[in-house]
Please model this.
Amino acid sequence: MDQRVVCSIVKLVVQVRLLPTPEQAAALAATLSACNTAANFASATAFTTGARREYGLRKHVYRELKARGLGAQTAQHVIKKVADAYTTLKANLRNGNYGPPGSARRTAIEGKPIAFRAQAGQPFDDRCLSWQIDTRTVSIWTTAGRMRDIAFTASAEQLTMLAVYRKGESDLVCRDGMWFLCATCQVPDPPVATPEGFMGVDLGIANIATTSDGKRHSGRGLNAVRHRQRQLRARLQAKATKSAKRLLKRRRRKEARFAADTNHTIAKQIVTEAERTGRGIALEDLGGIRDRVRLRKPQRVTLHSWSFHQLGSFIAYKAARAGVAVIYVDPAYTSQACSACGHVDKKNRPGQATFCCTSCGFAEHADVNAARNIAARGVAGWAVSHAADDAA
Ligand SMILES: [Zn+2]
Model:
């Protein structure tokens, strides 16, 4: 047996650009406008009556939406869109995303119905939208009747995805005068190939990720951004003005985006290398990272545990997409054990970056040594958990 069957399904969004004729574009614009006018009406009704769930709201507004010229499906989608928006708002209020109860911002948001822009996106299901992949056209319901043969552009890869995996609703979206359809595709992960060995990955701070091959992914850029961010925060918190708070929030988002970009890039490189060499990936079980790592105080602030978890999950996700095996190993003593002879000793690790075995003399960068231990544990762990497969 050389393949294991995995049945997880990933939802991906394929975005294609529509190339409508001027007449078609006018019909699309009128349709979005009608849908969002209707959504604002339904939203106001939900606000005044308190019927913010789909079923209750439907009783209040369905007839009126039909009377305004929306089809049955479209009316239903408008109601669902409004109900979903109120559910999201409720969750955001509960999580304190608009400030504490009684704050000016929260009171303003709670005090009026949710508003939809005239060109806000609108979902279309298979009864209102059909795809002709071979001719690269769609046919879509509009307030001016069914518009056929609206051309779209897509890459060969996107066309295959649409033809094989598209399922459910697509959102019609207008951005900067351009028209798009965002189609949901449900893609099953490929079977995981039996690995020829494992690549170990050690997660750290100075080096965000180090592989057992000796490749170190430096966190220099990320740590520099965080350092600047921390200094700015200290300065602005002293000010505590409204604009300072806004700026802080914007900076926090920017830092999170930068960390996510860095993590994506690193995860991609690691998974690509494992795939190329036919190996699986061994990761530390991330649960214990915060407890395990002892750091000087300024570094403790740098250590965002969510960023570790994010990198771990990006690697796991990309590995699953590529059919690369992932195994999680016990992280205990990976930094103190010798990856050549197995000798465990605190003194093996004289400094942050260096490893030198007091028993056999093996010397290596400390993170690389740890990654080699993780790789070895991956091999052992895989053998144990797949012994039954080999016997079969
Ligand atoms: Zn040794």
